[in-house]
């Protein structure tokens, strides 16, 4: 008996559900045919009324208050609909825009581009930059066209005003040109000044050497001390001039790229620093180093400076151990967010076990003339790492430093990986 009742109840529920489905199907057909413009849906014992006219009104209000120009064009580019934003952009009344050809508001130089976009927009989506021309005023815009065929025989158009963006780009362009000019003047000044200073400095050094050689015994203890200080200062000045010249030449010399084996670059630098490496009992560890397109003499200078730093700032309690690695992979592989994810880079790392420095100085050390250690502790001019940074810039790359006090330093270099055909 109970089973018969359960079956009857289930059959009744199925019948009710089928009835509702039939009602919804009839409602959908009525909406499609235009027989109704409103319908009610019962939710949580309450009825909600939805009107197609109110929905259309809400959509219209959204488009009217849209922060960009919105238009509907015929396939001949006649303006069938436009919102207020576009008429305000043209500074024309609605009646002077609606029904007119969109082409009449386009700058003559942009008409060919627009016609191509319109032709494409009749079939699919099209977008690009064009200029409008109203009362001799040019308005740069970004235009996006979307075909509404076959549902509606029109093309939907969105217009974005680029006036402010173009102004900002022009200001940035001017500022960059000014900065480039200042940099060129600064580099020229550094080169000329450094070059002109070398002659007088050499004479000073020659006379100091003569005084030490011929008059040393005639000098008092203080006199000898003063003379040695003058000699030390002159030598430091010579190093500074040499570094200034190197820094100025990183941009003034011709940037000639060549496919170069990084192993060869490292071997040449190790040979140049042979005495210093032996004196410090330094050891090297290298993994596979790639052949990449670089400016050979600049990259040699870069490695010379980094390895030289590893020797200079080595831990007095242990011999320097320098590790050089390289790998080639997409930017997304590395933990540097400034790299293009899908672009291939050659990543070169130079690590040491030296005295290191506090991590808050990881960026500051690349500033020209910045010295983390006093001149009495370590010789230097504060230009070496600025040269390294500039060379990496010349290669379209990025360099970062990671260091901890008394735990060594790692320099990570990322340059675009260009392969030989």
From TrEMBL:
Coiled-coil-forming residues are 7-34
Catalytically driven reaction(s): ATP + protein L-histidine = ADP + protein N-phospho-L-histidine
Which UniProt keywords are present, listed alphabetically? Coiled coil, Kinase, Phosphoprotein, Transferase
The Histidine kinase domain covers 192-419
List, alphabetically, the InterPro entries matched. HATPase_C_sf (IPR036890), HATPase_dom (IPR003594), His_kinase_dom (IPR005467), HisK_dim/P_dom (IPR003661), HisK_dim/P_sf (IPR036097), PAS (IPR000014), PAS-like_dom_sf (IPR035965), Sensor_kinase/Photoreceptor (IPR052162)
- Which EC number(s) does UniProt give? 2.7.13.3
Ranges for the PAS domain? 55-125
Source organism: Planktosalinus lacus
Q: Which GO terms describe its molecular function?
A: phosphorelay sensor kinase activity
PROSITE patterns, from UniProt?
HIS_KIN (PS50109), PAS (PS50112)
Q: Which enzyme class? A: transferase
Q: Output this protein's name.
A: histidine kinase
């Amino acid at each position: 008996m109970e089973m018969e009742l359960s079956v009857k109840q289930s059959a009744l529920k199925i019948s009710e559900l089928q009835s509702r489905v039939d009602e919804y199907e009839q409602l959908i057909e009525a909406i499609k045919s235009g027989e109704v413009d409103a319908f009610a849906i019962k939710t949580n014992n309450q009825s909600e009324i939805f009107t197609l006219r109110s929905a259309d009104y809400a959509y219209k209000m959204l488009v009217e208050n849209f922060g960009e120009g919105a238009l509907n064009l015929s396939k001949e580019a006649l303006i069938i609909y436009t919102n207020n934003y576009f008429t305000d952009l043209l500074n024309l009344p609605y009646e002077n825009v609606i029904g007119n050809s969109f082409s009449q508001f386009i700058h003559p130089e942009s008409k060919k581009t627009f016609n191509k976009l319109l032709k494409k927009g009749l079939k699919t989506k099209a977008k690009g930059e064009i200029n409008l021309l109203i009362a001799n005023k040019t308005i740069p815009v970004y235009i996006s066209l979307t075909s509404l065929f076959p549902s509606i025989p029109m093309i939907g158009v969105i217009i974005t005003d680029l006036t402010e963006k173009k102004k900002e780009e022009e200001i940035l362009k001017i500022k960059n040109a000014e900065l480039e000019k200042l940099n060129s003047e600064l580099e020229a000044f550094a080169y000329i000044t450094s070059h002109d200073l070398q002659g007088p400095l050499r004479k000073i050094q020659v006379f100091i050497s003569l005084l030490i050689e011929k008059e040393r015994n005639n000098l008092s203890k203080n006199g000898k001390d003063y003379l040695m200080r003058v000699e030390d200062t002159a030598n430091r000045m010579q190093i500074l001039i040499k570094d200034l010249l190197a820094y100025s030449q990183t941009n003034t010399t011709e940037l000639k790229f060549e496919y170069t084996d990084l192993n060869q670059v490292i071997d040449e630098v190790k040979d140049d620093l042979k005495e210093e490496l032996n004196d410090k009992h330094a050891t090297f560890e290298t993994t596979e180093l790639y052949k990449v397109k670089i400016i050979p003499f600049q990259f040699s200078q870069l490695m010379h400076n980094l390895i030289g730093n590893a020797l200079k700032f080595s831990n007095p309690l242990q011999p320097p151990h320098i590790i050089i690695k390289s790998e080639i992979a997409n930017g997304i592989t590395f933990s540097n967010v400034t790299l293009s994810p899908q672009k291939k880079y050659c990543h070169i790392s130079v690590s040491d076990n030296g005295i290191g420095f506090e991590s808050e100085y990881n960026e500051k050390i690349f500033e020209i003339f910045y010295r983390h250690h006093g001149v009495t502790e370590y010789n230097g001019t504060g230009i070496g790492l600025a040269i390294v940074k500039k060379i990496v810039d010349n290669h379209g790359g990025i360099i970062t430093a990671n260091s901890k006090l008394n735990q060594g330093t790692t320099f990570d270099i990322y340059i675009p990986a260009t392969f030989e055909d």
